[in-house]
Amino acid sequence: MRNLERAQLTALFDHATIGDESGVTPGKLNINTCSQDALKYLSEVDPFVADAIRVYRDQQRGDIASIIELLDVGGVSRTALADLTRLIDVRSNVFQFSVTGRDENTGLTVEMQVEVDRSTLPVKINAIRIR
After folding, report:
1. Is-above-0.70 flag for pTM?
2. What is d(CA 42, CA 50) in angstroms, rounded to the nearest whole number?
C-alpha cells in the first residue's frame, strides 16, 4: 500500500476528520494566528516541535495553507500530525468584524460589531452590538 501524496493529504484534511469527532468541541488552535507561547500548552507538542512550528510559521509569514505543511517541520511525522488534527488548524472558527452603514431614512451612521462562529451549521451568531 503506498502513501497518499501531499496534495491528496491536503484535500483529505480539508474535508475530513480523524477518529471519533463526537467528543470534539469547537476551538482548535489556529497555528497561523496563535500567540508565540500558545503551542507550549498542548501536551501533544514537545518544546522542540513547538519551536520548530513557530519558526516554520514565521518563515511562511503566518500563511500556512494546510496543516499538511507541518510535515516539513522537524519532529512532525504523519502519526504525530494525525494526533494534532483534533487540536490545531490553519483557519479560525470564530470571527469578529465591524460593519459601518448609513440609515437611508435618517442619515445616521450606525456601526455593528458581530461575532460569528462557523464551527457548526448553520453558522451561529454569538453576539451583535450596535453603536
Report:
1. no
2. 9
Which residue numbers in the chain have pLDDT < 50?
Answer: 23-25
- Between CA 61 and CA 123 the distance in angstroms is 29
| Contact indicator for 1, 57 with CB cutoff of 8 Å | no
Q: How far is 115 from 127, CA to CA, in rounded Å?
A: 5
* Dist CA 33 CA 105 (whole Å): 41
Question: Cell digits for 77?
Answer: 511525522
Beta strands in the chain (DSSP E): 29-30, 88-89, 94-102, 109-117, 124-130
**Measured CA distances, 58 to 25, 32, 52, 64, 87 (Å):** 28, 9, 10, 10, 20
